[in-house]
Amino acid sequence: MSRQKLNHYREMLLELRQRVGGEVNHVVESIQEDVKLNANHSSAPVHLADVAADAVDADVEVLQTERSILDEIVAALQRISDGKFGRCTHCGAAISEERLNAIPYSALCVRCAQSNMGVEGSD
Asked: Fewer CB within 10 Å, N- or C-terminus of the chain?
């Protein structure tokens, strides 16, 4: 892959990392706010596990998904540094530009992603 294309993907990933990182922070703040609101209804001590409101549960699921994407972005940036970006981490084949444009942090080629039930980075 050319240096110009690598720089293009690095910029995409850095921008995506910043955006997803901001979303992670926003979800964490939302969870904290939900806990504070629920804790104010009683003078009893409240633990996060005791506040199992649907909103908190949904926020936690979103947080887990966003953290997973953030981890994949960081791994893709490391692959750029290591000179391995754009190659499938499972079979070593080139990952198509169409796939990288759609999912710049993709670690697997389409074939391996499909054989792993579409789970990115499962190996």
From this structure: C
Residues 6+ apart with CB under 8 A from 119: 113
Q: What confidence tens digit (pLDDT) does each residue in 37-80 have?
A: 555 555 555 555 554 555 566 667 777 888 889 999 999 999 99
What are the pLDDT digits (tens) for 87-113? 999 999 999 999 999 999 999 999 999
Q: Where are the domains of the chain?
A: 3-85, 86-123
- The string of DSSP codes covering 6-23 is HHHHHHHHHHHHHHHHHH
